[in-house]
Amino acid sequence: PQGSQEAKAFVNAFLKHSMPKMKDDAIQDILTRKAVVLEHYCKKKTKQKRKKTKGFTAKQRREMRLFEIEPEQQRYAIFLPLHELWKQYIRDLCHGLKPDAQPLMVQSKLLKADLHGAIVTVTKSKCPSYVGITGIILQEFKHIFKIITKEDKLKVVPKLNNVFSLEIDGFISYIYGSKFQLRASERSAKKFKLKGTIDL
């Protein structure tokens, strides 16, 4: 064990090292009060910012023509297998589309389903030229459907002010485009109200 002198010398040396800015008189003054508070500085941890993976902007996608379908690919027959895949996808989604299936259940599933590959018909429209257009949906955007018809013509049909009918295994569903102005990814999370709507 250290003697009193050695202990005093150790404490003085320790305090001088711990508080280099303070003078000896000030340290002795603190010691006479029999309480020493040592200052402690914590180093702030710098949070590393996560780098967000940057995708293409809308302008870049347009310039690269990512969503454009080449004229030689605009043929109805090419996309018939896609329609067959879509029908199987809907059957699996609705557990077989049996005759005793609840229409509201099927309707709610179709509202959130991916429509790429579905055959739709414009049944009502404020623009008469759209009425009767039938074809396979190739692309769905927030405000429009791109549809390929049996005549191998690519039609761009707006959702606004149009009513579309969709038929699968004898079940006919109507889509009110004005209430359907969402991207396909947004529709899957949206809660649709099962109420009648006044449109057109």
Automatic annotation (TrEMBL):
Keyword Nucleus: yes
Pfam families reported in the protein's UniProt record: RNase_P-MRP_p29
Keyword field: Nucleus, Phosphoprotein, tRNA processing
One cellular-component annotation, GO: nucleolus
Predominant localisation class: nucleus
Gene3D superfamilies, per database record: Ribonuclease P/MRP, subunit p29
Single GO MF descriptor: ribonuclease P RNA binding
UniProt keyword annotation of Phosphoprotein present: yes
Compartment annotation: Nucleus, Nucleolus
Membership in a protein family: Belongs to the eukaryotic/archaeal RNase P protein component 1 family.
Role description: Component of ribonuclease P, a ribonucleoprotein complex that generates mature tRNA molecules by cleaving their 5'-ends.
Assembly and oligomerization: Component of nuclear RNase P and RNase MRP ribonucleoproteins. RNase P consists of a catalytic RNA moiety and 10 different protein chains; POP1, POP4, POP5, POP7, RPP14, RPP21, RPP25, RPP30, RPP38 and RPP40. Within the RNase P complex, POP1, POP7 and RPP25 form the 'finger' subcomplex, POP5, RPP14, RPP40 and homodimeric RPP30 form the 'palm' subcomplex, and RPP21, POP4 and RPP38 form the 'wrist' subcomplex. All subunits of the RNase P complex interact with the catalytic RNA. Several subunits of RNase P are also part of the RNase MRP complex.
Protein name per UniProt: Ribonuclease P protein subunit p29
Source organism per UniProt: Nyctiprogne leucopyga
Gene coding for it: Pop4
